[in-house]
C-alpha cells in the first residue's frame, strides 16, 4: 500500500457571497489533502471564535477527499460584511481560502434636506446621499403634502438615485407644504427623511370675485355686492378689491375705488357708488388684490341708476282759448338727456290767475300725449297754466307759466235784490252784482210790474256802476213786483229773484245795502256802504267788532251813511255793522273787511348742511290773508355782502349752493305777494360743514437733506374744506426774525426749501389756509451733514409736571442746600434792614444833647437805654439825616418837663434824672503840653456833681457827617460828652473846626458847646486842612470780664493833642459788648472827604474831632482822612445850601439855659452874645414856619434822587 503525503488545498481561493441583512447565511470551505486536516476561521484577519458570539456556528464534515467546514450565521448584520478566511492545516502543510461576505440591506434615510430656492409654484431641494446598504440606489422618492393634509394624501416626485438635487413643481402659491424624501435600492426603500416645511411665494390672485350684483339705490347711487374668489385661487392673503365702474357703451377707462377685505368667511362685500348720473347705465367690474398684485377682472355687470325727475321742463308750451269754458294746451317733451328716466305722463297745472298762488285752488290734469284740452273752466276768466313731465322718479321741473282767458258769456243773475218803501208813491230797488259776471257788465235792467193786473212790464236800464233804482209814480197801497238782470257784450243774463213791495205813508228805517265782504289793499282806502231809507230820516251808527264807532283821523261816516277808512292796515280787518233806526223801525247789516297786506315774517329753519350748501325750510306765517307768491331768501357770509335768491312758493325746502366751506352764514327770508314784499324773518345763524386744516405728522410732511428740506403738502388734512394755499417761513433756531420763503404755495405740489446750511437746526413755520380759516404749525429739524449723517438731537427738556419738577429739585442736594441757604441769608438780611430802618426812622430827626461831664465821669453801663438815647442810629437808606430840619425841643417843652428818656422828636434832658453819671477818678496819664482844665474855662464846671440843673455847662449837639454806614445801633452808639471852654471870640481864619495847639488863635471855635464823640473808633482822624490832629489814648482798663482780652480793644480814652499838648484826660466809659472785639479794619474805617470850606469858618462850635489810637499817644494808629466838618445849624442861610428850608423851628436846651434860665459859671473867659444867638420874636416865628415846610421839601429831594451825599457820620 502506497501512502501519498499531500498538504491541504482549496480549489477556490476567493469568492463573493451575499446575504440580506437579518437573514441566516452559511459559508462553506472544502479543503483537500492528507487527513487529518484542521480548519480555522478568521474574520478580517482576526480569529473567529464562536464561543464569543452565539450567532456563529462552525461545523465540519469529513469527505473522502478532504474536509468540508461550514460557518453558519443565524441572522446577518451589517457588521457581517467582512472578509472571512478559512485556514486548513495538516501534517504536511496549510492552505487558505477567502470568502467576501456582503450583507445587503435597505438604504439609510437621506439627510441634510435643504431648500435651495422657491417660487410661488415650485421649490428646489438638495440632500446628502445616505448609506446605500451595499446595494446601489435605484432612485429617490420626494413626498410632499399641504401642511393640513395627512401623509396618506401625498404627491410624489421620482428622482434617479445618482442625483442629490431635484425640483418639485405644480405647487400652489402662498401655501404651506411639508416635504420629505426616501431612498430606494434593490433591497427596498429607506425610512423617510425629516420633513421640511416651506411656504411658497405669493402670486397675484388667479380667481375672480363671485356672485356680483349691482342694484340702484337712488337716482345717483348704486350698490355693488360680491363674494371673494375661491380660496384656492387667492394665491396669498387678499388685502382688498378694486371696484371699477364707467359709463356703458363708452370707451372711457374704469374709475376704480378700493375696498378693504373682510375676513369673515362667506361675508359679502359691498360698495355704494355715489355721485353717478341719474338714470344712466354703468358697467361694473371687480378684481381682488394682494401684496403681489391684482387678479383678473370679473365679467362686466351693467345696471342703470334709479330714475330721477326730469331736469328740464317741457318746452314750447302754448294755450289756445276754444270757448268760454275750454282751453287747449300743447307742449314739446324735454330733451332726452334731461329726462332722467322714462317719461310716462305729463301734468298740466292750472287755476284762475287771481287764485294761482292758493295751492288749494289749483287743478291738475294728466295726459300721455303732448297736448290736452281743459274743460269746465270759468267763463271769461284768466287762467294760469304750467306743464311738467313725470317719470318713475317723480315730477320734473315745471314750465314757465302761460296765461289764457276764456271767452265771455252772458252773466249770471244778480245775487240778491231788495225793494224798500220810500213813500206813498216810491220804492227803492237795490241789488248785488252776479257772482259770475262771465264778462264785462255793460248794464243792469230793472223790471217792474203791478201785481195782480195784466199790466205791461216796465223796464229801466241802469248803468253798470249803479246798484239801485228808485221807482216813482207808483200807486199808494198797491203791490209791485221787481226783478233785475245783468248784461254783457254777449247778451242779457238770467233774471234775479222777484221781490214785491207796496208804497205807503209810513216809511220804516231800512238799509238798502247788503251784507258783503270787502277786500282792501294794505295802505289803501276802503269804503263800506250803508244806504238807508226811512221817514223820519233814520239815524245811522257804525260798530266795529262790536264796539260803537267814534270818528277819528282815519275813519269817518260819509253823508250817504258809508264808512270810509283811510290807509287800511292789518288791524282794520274784521266785522263792521251799520245800524239805521227811526221811530218806526230799525235795521242793520254787517260787512266783513279783509285786508290784503304784504306777508308777515315767514319761518326759516335749517334742514341740512354740507361743505358748500345750506338747505333751509320755509313756512309762511299763519296770519297771512293774501295768497303768498313766493319768498326772497337773503344770505351772506360772516364778513361778506348780502345775496338774494328767489324761492317758489311751492318749494318747502331750498338749497343755497356755492357757499364757502366751513364758514359762518346769516340767513333770513321775506315773503311777497301781489301787494308787495313782507316782513323779514329772524336771522338764522349757521355755518357750512368743514374745519380748518389739520396738522400732519412730521415724518410724513418733512423730508430733510443736507442743504434743503422737502415739504409734502399732500400730507395735510384739509378738514373737509379744500386747501387754498400755504405760507412757508423758516429761520435758524437761534434767530428771532422769520424769513418768508413763499406766501402762495399750491397744495397739490411738493415744495423744496433750498440754500440751507448742513448740520444746522432750523425752525419751520407753515400756515395752511382754506375757506374755514388757517392753521399755523411750527416744526424744528436739523439738516443732515455733508456726508448724509445726522447731528445730535437738541437738548430740549421734556415737559414736566409740577410734581416731577418738585421731586427733581428736592432730590438734588447740590441745588437745594445753596438755594435754601441763600434764601435764609436774604430773609435775615431783610429782617435786619427792617429793624434798622424802623429804629432809624424812630431816631431819624432826634438831636441828643449830652450833659457835660468831668474827667472822672462816665456813663453808667447799667443803663443801656441811656446809651441808646445818646446814640445815633443810621437810617438804612444811606441818606444824610435832615439835621437842620429836625424837630428839637423848645424851651417851653423843656421847662414844662414833657417827654421821658425816649420820646419821639425829643432831646434828652439830663436835668430830669440827676443819677445819670457817676464820678470816676481819672488815672494819671502822661501827657505833653497843657493839662485839661487849665487852658480855658472853669474846672468846677467839669467836676460838678450831677443833679444840679442850674450848673450844667452850655452845650450844643449836632450830627457830624461821617460814621453813618458803619455804626451799629446796638454796639457803636455810646457817646461821651466832652465840655468845651469858652473859646476866643471872633472869627478864626482857616478851618475853625479843628483842634489847634493851645495858645493858637484858632484853638477853639468862638461858640461854646459840647460835642458827643463815639467811643468805638480806633482810627486816627487827621485834619484835612490844618494838618493838626487830636487823638484818644486808652486809659487803664477796668477789671470788667466783658471787655476784650487784647490790648487793642476799647478802653477808657484820654483826649490828647497830637502835638503833645493834652486837652483832656480822664476815664471814658467802656464797652462791655463782646461784639465790639472786631478786627481793627472792621471798625468804622470808611474814608472821608468833602467840599466843606468857608461856610463853616463862621460857625461858632469848637472842634473836638481827633484820632483814636490803639496804643498811647506816642503810638498812634494808622491815620485815615478826616471826615468833613458837620453841617452848620445856626449860621447864615445865605452861606450854606444845606440849610435850605431845613432849619429847626426850635432852639437847643443850651440856648434856653443861656437866654432864659439861671446861669452858672461856665468858664473864666466870658464872651458877648453873637448877633445870631439873639433872636427876636419875628425871627422865631419865621424859623417855625420854615420848619413846617422843611420835611416835605426833603422828601421831594429824596424822591428825585437829590439830597445829601452819604458820609460816615458820628454824633458830636
Automatic annotation (TrEMBL):
User: Which cell locations does it reside in?
Assistant: Membrane
Q: Chief localization class?
A: membrane
Residues annotated as domain Fibronectin type-III: 109-203, 208-312, 313-409, 413-506, 598-691, 695-790
Q: Which GO terms describe its cellular component?
A: axon; dendrite; neuron projection; neuronal cell body; plasma membrane
GO biological process: what's one of them?
regulation of axonogenesis
The yes or no answer to whether the keyword Signal is present is yes
Polar residues biased stretches: 1022-1032, 1190-1200
User: What CDD domains does the database record attribute to this sequence?
Assistant: FN3 (cd00063)
- Which residues lie in Basic and acidic residues bias regions? 1140-1158, 1170-1189
Its keywords, alphabetically, are: Cell adhesion, Disulfide bond, Immunoglobulin domain, Membrane, Repeat, Signal, Transmembrane, Transmembrane helix
Annotated membrane topology: Single-pass membrane protein
Where does this protein have compositionally biased stretches of type Low complexity?
Answer: 1093-1114
**Residue segments, region Disordered:** 884-915, 983-1042, 1058-1212
- UniProt keyword Signal present: yes
Alphabetized SMART domains for the sequence: FN3, IG, IGc2
Give the stretches traversing the membrane. Answer: 815-836
UniProt GO MF annotations: antigen binding; axon guidance receptor activity; identical protein binding
The record's section on Pfam families has: Dscam_C (PF12355), fn3 (PF00041), FN3_DSCAM-DSCAML_C (PF25059), I-set (PF07679)
Ig-like domain sequence ranges: 8-100, 508-590
Q: What is this protein called?
A: SD09407p
**Gene behind the chain:** Dscam1
Amino acid at each position: 500500500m502506497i501512502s501519498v503525503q499531500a498538504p491541504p488545498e482549496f480549489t477556490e481561493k476567493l469568492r463573493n457571497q451575499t446575504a440580506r441583512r437579518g437573514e441566516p447565511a452559511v459559508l462553506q470551505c472544502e479543503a483537500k489533502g492528507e487527513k487529518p486536516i484542521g480548519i480555522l476561521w478568521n474574520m478580517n484577519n482576526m480569529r473567529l471564535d464562536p464561543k464569543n458570539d452565539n450567532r456563529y456556528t462552525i461545523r465540519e464534515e469529513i469527505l473522502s477527499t478532504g474536509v468540508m467546514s461550514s460557518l453558519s450565521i443565524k441572522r446577518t448584520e451589517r457588521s457581517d460584511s467582512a472578509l472571512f478566511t478559512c485556514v486548513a492545516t495538516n501534517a504536511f502543510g496549510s492552505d487558505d481560502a477567502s470568502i467576501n461576505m456582503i450583507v445587503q440591506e435597505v438604504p439609510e434615510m437621506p439627510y441634510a434636506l435643504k431648500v435651495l430656492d422657491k417660487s410661488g409654484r415650485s421649490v428646489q431641494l438638495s440632500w446628502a446621499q445616505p448609506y446605500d446598504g451595499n446595494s446601489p440606489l435605484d432612485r429617490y422618492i420626494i413626498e410632499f403634502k399641504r401642511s393640513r393634509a395627512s401623509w396618506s394624501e401625498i404627491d410624489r416626485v421620482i428622482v434617479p438615485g445618482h442625483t442629490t438635487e431635484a425640483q418639485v413643481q405644480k405647487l400652489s402659491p402662498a401655501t404651506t407644504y411639508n416635504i420629505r424624501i426616501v431612498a430606494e435600492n434593490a433591497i427596498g426603500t429607506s425610512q423617510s427623511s425629516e420633513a421640511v416645511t416651506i411656504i411658497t411665494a405669493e402670486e397675484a390672485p388667479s380667481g375672480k370675485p363671485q356672485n356680483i350684483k349691482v342694484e340702484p339705490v337712488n337716482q345717483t347711487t348704486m350698490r355693488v355686492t360680491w363674494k371673494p374668489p375661491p380660496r384656492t385661487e387667492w394665491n396669498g392673503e387678499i388685502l382688498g378689491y378694486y371696484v371699477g365702474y364707467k359709463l356703458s357703451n363708452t370707451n372711457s377707462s374704469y374709475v376704480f375705488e378700493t375696498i378693504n377685505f373682510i375676513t369673515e368667511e362667506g361675508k359679502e362685500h359691498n360698495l355704494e357708488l355715489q355721485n353717478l348720473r341719474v338714470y344712466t347705465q354703468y358697467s361694473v367690474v371687480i378684481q381682488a388684490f394682494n401684496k403681489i398684485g391684482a387678479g383678473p377682472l370679473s365679467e362686466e355687470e351693467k345696471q342703470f341708476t334709479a330714475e330721477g325727475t326730469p331736469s328740464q321742463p317741457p318746452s314750447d308750451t302754448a294755450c289756445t282759448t276754444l270757448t268760454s269754458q275750454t282751453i287747449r294746451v300743447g307742449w314739446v317733451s324735454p330733451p332726452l338727456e334731461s329726462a332722467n328716466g322714462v317719461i310716462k305722463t305729463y301734468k298740466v297745472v292750472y287755476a284762475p290767475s287771481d287764485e294761482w298762488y292758493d295751492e288749494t285752488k289749483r287743478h291738475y290734469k294728466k295726459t300721455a300725449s303732448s297736448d290736452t284740452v281743459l274743460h269746465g273752466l270759468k267763463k271769461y276768466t284768466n287762467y294760469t297754466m304750467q306743464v311738467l313731465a313725470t317719470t318713475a322718479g317723480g315730477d320734473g321741473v315745471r314750465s314757465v307759466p302761460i296765461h289764457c282767458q276764456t271767452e265771455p258769456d252772458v252773466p249770471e243773475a244778480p245775487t240778491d235784490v231788495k225793494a224798500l218803501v220810500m213813500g206813498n208813491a216810491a220804492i227803492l230797488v237795490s241789488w248785488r252784482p252776479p257772482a259770475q259776471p262771465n264778462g264785462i257788465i255793460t248794464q243792469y235792467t230793472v223790471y217792474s210790474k203791478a201785481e195782480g193786473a195784466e199790466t205791461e212790464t216796465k223796464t229801466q236800464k241802469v248803468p253798470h256802476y249803479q246798484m239801485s233804482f228808485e221807482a216813482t209814480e207808483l200807486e199808494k197801497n198797491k203791490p209791485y213786483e221787481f226783478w233785475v238782470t245783468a248784461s254783457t257784450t254777449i247778451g242779457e243774463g238770467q233774471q234775479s229773484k222777484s221781490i214785491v213791495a207796496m208804497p205807503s205813508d209810513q216809511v220804516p228805517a231800512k238799509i238798502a245795502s247788503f251784507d258783503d265782504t270787502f277786500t282792501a289793499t294794505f295802505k289803501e282806502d276802503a269804503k263800506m256802504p250803508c244806504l238807508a231809507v226811512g221817514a223820519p230820516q233814520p239815524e245811522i251808527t257804525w260798530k266795529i267788532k262790536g264796539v260803537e264807532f267814534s270818528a277819528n283821523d282815519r275813519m269817518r261816516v260819509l253823508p250817504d251813511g258809508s264808512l270810509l277808512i283811510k290807509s287800511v292796515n292789518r288791524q282794520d280787518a274784521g266785522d263792521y255793522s251799520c245800524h239805521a233806526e227811526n221811530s218806526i223801525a230799525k235795521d242793520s247789516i254787517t260787512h266783513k273787511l279783509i285786508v290784503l297786506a304784504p306777508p308777515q315774517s315767514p319761518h326759516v329753519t335749517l334742514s341740512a348742511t354740507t361743505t358748500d350748501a345750506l338747505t333751509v325750510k320755509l313756512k309762511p306765517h299763519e296770519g297771512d290773508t293774501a295768497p303768498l307768491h313766493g319768498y326772497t331768501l337773503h344770505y351772506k357770509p360772516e364778513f361778506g355782502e348780502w345775496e338774494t335768491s328767489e324761492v317758489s312758493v311751492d318749494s318747502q325746502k331750498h338749497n343755497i349752493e356755492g357757499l364757502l366751506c366751513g364758514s359762518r352764514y346769516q340767513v333770513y327770508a321775506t315773503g311777497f305777494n301781489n301787494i308787495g314784499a313782507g316782513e323779514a324773518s329772524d336771522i338764522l345763524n349757521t355755518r357750512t360743514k368743514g374745519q380748518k386744516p389739520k396738522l400732519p405728522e412730521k415724518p410724513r410732511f418733512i423730508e430733510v437733506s443736507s442743504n434743503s428740506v422737502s415739504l409734502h403738502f399732500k400730507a395735510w388734512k384739509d378738514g373737509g374744506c379744500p386747501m387754498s394755499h400755504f405760507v412757508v417761513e423758516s429761520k435758524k433756531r437761534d434767530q428771532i426774525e422769520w424769513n418768508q420763503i413763499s406766501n402762495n404755495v399750491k397744495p397739490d405740489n411738493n415744495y423744496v426749501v433750498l440754500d440751507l446750511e448742513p448740520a444746522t437746526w432750523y425752525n419751520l413755520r407753515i400756515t395752511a389756509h382754506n375757506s374755514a380759516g388757517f392753521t399755523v404749525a411750527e416744526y424744528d429739524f436739523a439738516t443732515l451733514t455733508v456726508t448724509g449723517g445726522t447731528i445730535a438731537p437738541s437738548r430740549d427738556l421734556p415737559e414736566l409736571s409740577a410734581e416731577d419738577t418738585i421731586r427733581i429739585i428736592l432730590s438734588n442736594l447740590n441745588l437745594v442746600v445753596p438755594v435754601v441757604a441763600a434764601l435764609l441769608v436774604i430773609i435775615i438780611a431783610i429782617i435786619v434792614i427792617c429793624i434798622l430802618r424802623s429804629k432809624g426812622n424812630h431816631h431819624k430827626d432826634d438831636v441828643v444833647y449830652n450833659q457835660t461831664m468831668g474827667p472822672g465821669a462816665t456813663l453808667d453801663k447799667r443803663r443801656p437805654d441811656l446809651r441808646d438815647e445818646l446814640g445815633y442810629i443810621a437810617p438804612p437808606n444811606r441818606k444824610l439825616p435832615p439835621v437842620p430840619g429836625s424837630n428839637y425841643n423848645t424851651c417851653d417843652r423843656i421847662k414844662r418837663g414833657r417827654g421821658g428818656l425816649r420820646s419821639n422828636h425829643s432831646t434828652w434832658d439830663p436835668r430830669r434824672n440827676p443819677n445819670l453819671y457817676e464820678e470816676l477818678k481819672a488815672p494819671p496819664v502822661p501827657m505833653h503840653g497843657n493839662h485839661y482844665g487849665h487852658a480855658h474855662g472853669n474846672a468846677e464846671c467839669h467836676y460838678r456833681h450831677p443833679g444840679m440843673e442850674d450848673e450844667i455847662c452850655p452845650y450844643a449837639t449836632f450830627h457830624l457827617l461821617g460814621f453813618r454806614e458803619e455804626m451799629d445801633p446796638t454796639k457803636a452808639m455810646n457817646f461821651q460828652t466832652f465840655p468845651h471852654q469858652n473859646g476866643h471870640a471872633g472869627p478864626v481864619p482857616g478851618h475853625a473846626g479843628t483842634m489847634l495847639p493851645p495858645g493858637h488863635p484858632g484853638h477853639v471855635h468862638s461858640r461854646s458847646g459840647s460835642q458827643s464823640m463815639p467811643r468805638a473808633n480806633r482810627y486816627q482822624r487827621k485834619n484835612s486842612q490844618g494838618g493838626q490832629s487830636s487823638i484818644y489814648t486808652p486809659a487803664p482798663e477796668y477789671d470788667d470780664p466783658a471787655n476784650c482780652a487784647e490790648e487793642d480793644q476799647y478802653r477808657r480814652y484820654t483826649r490828647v493833642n497830637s502835638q503833645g499838648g493834652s486837652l483832656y484826660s480822664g476815664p471814658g466809659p467802656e464797652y462791655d459788648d463782646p461784639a465790639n472785639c472786631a478786627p481793627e479794619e472792621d471798625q468804622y474805617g470808611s474814608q472821608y472827604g468833602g467840599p466843606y470850606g468857608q461856610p463853616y469858618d463862621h460857625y461858632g462850635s469848637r472842634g473836638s474831632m481827633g484820632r483814636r489810637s490803639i496804643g498811647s499817644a506816642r503810638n498812634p494808629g494808622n491815620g485815615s482822612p478826616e471826615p468833613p466838618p458837620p453841617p452848620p445849624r445856626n449860621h447864615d442861610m445865605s452861606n450854606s445850601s444845606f440849610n435850605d428850608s431845613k432849619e429847626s423851628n426850635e432852639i437847643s436846651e443850651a440856648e434856653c439855659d443861656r437866654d432864659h434860665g439861671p446861669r452858672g459859671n461856665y468858664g473864666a473867659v466870658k464872651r458877648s452874645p453873637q448877633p445870631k444867638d439873639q433872636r427876636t420874636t419875628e425871627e422865631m416865628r419865621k424859623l417855625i414856619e420854615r420848619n413846617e415846610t422843611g420835611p416835605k421839601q426833603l422828601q421831594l429831594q429824596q424822591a428825585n434822587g437829590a439830597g445829601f451825599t452819604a458820609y460816615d457820620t458820628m454824633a458830636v
